[in-house]
Structures are given as structure tokens and as C-alpha cells.
Amino acid sequence: PWPISGSLGALATTVGGVMYMHSFQGGARLLSLGLIFILYTMFVWWRDVLRESTLEGHHTKVVQLGLRYGFILFIVSEVMFFFAFFWAFFHSSLAPTVEIGGIWPPKGIGVLDPWEIPFLNTLILLSSGAAVTWAHHAILAGKEKRAVYALVATVFLALVFTGFQGMEYYQAPFTISDSIYGSTFFLATGFHGFHVIIGTLFLIICGIRQYLGHLTKEHHVGFEAAAWYWHFVDVVRLF
């Protein structure tokens, strides 16, 4: 029943969000109910997946292959999602219109120094990618404790990255409403930061499962998905 309940939760969230933004009565209540329904569905659905894979042994080689293909397609859809933001940025920067002064960055926009927090944050995120690769090799070698240490290091670096990202937003001399520059900057980096937070939660769950002995060198599809997702986040950051 979880796909149906998740769809109903998404529908309630969408309708409630539109009602709330147009000041309709009950919009906030419907929005909150939809979000709670989605979170509940996520929890119980993933709980069942863990039971099927870890305790009941239903995740055969064929099932694991299907999960890998499905997650690859999900990452491809995410690539298309971010491609839209990159297209908007490059289109606006390579051919600036007269409305923004015909130059890039637009007139009156003070930009961030790319060699300060942005560069440091890029190094931190790439280091976390190296740490998650270390964890993967540790799992393949059957070294459970080393894998846990590597995942702890990855999560720590991810939290540091998120903290610096928040500091960067706080110090930014422009806002999301400051022309196309502010819009593309905050949308692209904001959604990237959101993906970092989701990936961090993903890795925390993998760390807990590794500590509990759920992941083995023969069966760790959940961790592979988390690692692929994290490397995708790394690549997006480079752009």
C-alpha cells in the first residue's frame, strides 16, 4: 500500500501548498497533513525494505540488479534536474540582456570570492567523497569497524560543508530576488545543499546499519546507492 499512500501524501502536500500560498482556509492544515503522511510512508516503506533484505533474504541477485538499475535511472533524472539550472546560468551569463546592463555579473551585484568559502567547501565535499570510497573498500574487505570510522568521517565532513554553506548564504551581498544572478545562484546552490542534507541522512542510516552488521561484502546495495548519490553530489558541486 505504500506507493498509494505516498502518492496521496504528495497530492495532499501539493494541493495544500497551493491553497496555503493563495491564503485559502485549511491550506496549512492540508499541507502539514500531506508532509506527515509522506514522512510516515517513507519510514514504514524503508523499514519493510530493510526487513526484506536483511532478515527475510528476498533481495536475490536479480532483485539487487533491478535496484541498481532503478537508482541509476534516478540519478539520471537528477542530472536533468540540475541541467536546467546550469542552462539558465550559462544562458544568462554568456548572453546577458540589456535588462541587466549587458554585463555579467549584472550591475550592482557584489559577488562572492570563489577562492574563499566556496573553494574550501569544494575541498571539504571532495574529501568526503574520498572518505565514502574508503568506506566502500573497507566493506568489500570485510573490515566492519574501519567502514564505520570512514562513514563517521564522511558524515562529519558533510555537516561541516552544510555549516559553511549556511555561513556563505548569511554573508552573501545579494539575495534570491537580485536579478537572474541571485535567482540562479540560490536555486542551484540551495537545491544542491538540500541534496547534501538528504545524502547525509542516507549515509547516517548506512553507518547505523554497518554498525549493526547489516552490510556485508556480498550484500550492500543500500550503501552502494548512497555512495553513488554522494559522488553525484560531488560532481554537481564542481559545476
From TrEMBL:
The chain crosses the membrane at residues 28-46, 67-90, 117-135, 147-165, 185-208. It is found in: Membrane. One of its GO terms (molecular function) is cytochrome-c oxidase activity. GO terms for biological process: mitochondrial electron transport, cytochrome c to oxygen. CDD domains: Cyt_c_Oxidase_III. GO terms for cellular component: membrane; mitochondrion. Keywords: Membrane, Mitochondrion, Translocase, Transmembrane, Transmembrane helix. Its main location: membrane. Signal peptide: none annotated. Belongs to the cytochrome c oxidase subunit 3 family. Component of the cytochrome c oxidase, the last enzyme in the mitochondrial electron transport chain which drives oxidative phosphorylation. The respiratory chain contains 3 multisubunit complexes succinate dehydrogenase (complex II, CII), ubiquinol-cytochrome c oxidoreductase (cytochrome b-c1 complex, complex III, CIII) and cytochrome c oxidase (complex IV, CIV), that cooperate to transfer electrons derived from NADH and succinate to molecular oxygen, creating an electrochemical gradient over the inner membrane that drives transmembrane transport and the ATP synthase. Component of the cytochrome c oxidase (complex IV, CIV), a multisubunit enzyme composed of a catalytic core of 3 subunits and several supernumerary subunits. The complex exists as a monomer or a dimer and forms supercomplexes (SCs) in the inner mitochondrial membrane with ubiquinol-cytochrome c oxidoreductase (cytochrome b-c1 complex, complex III, CIII). This is Cytochrome c oxidase subunit 3.
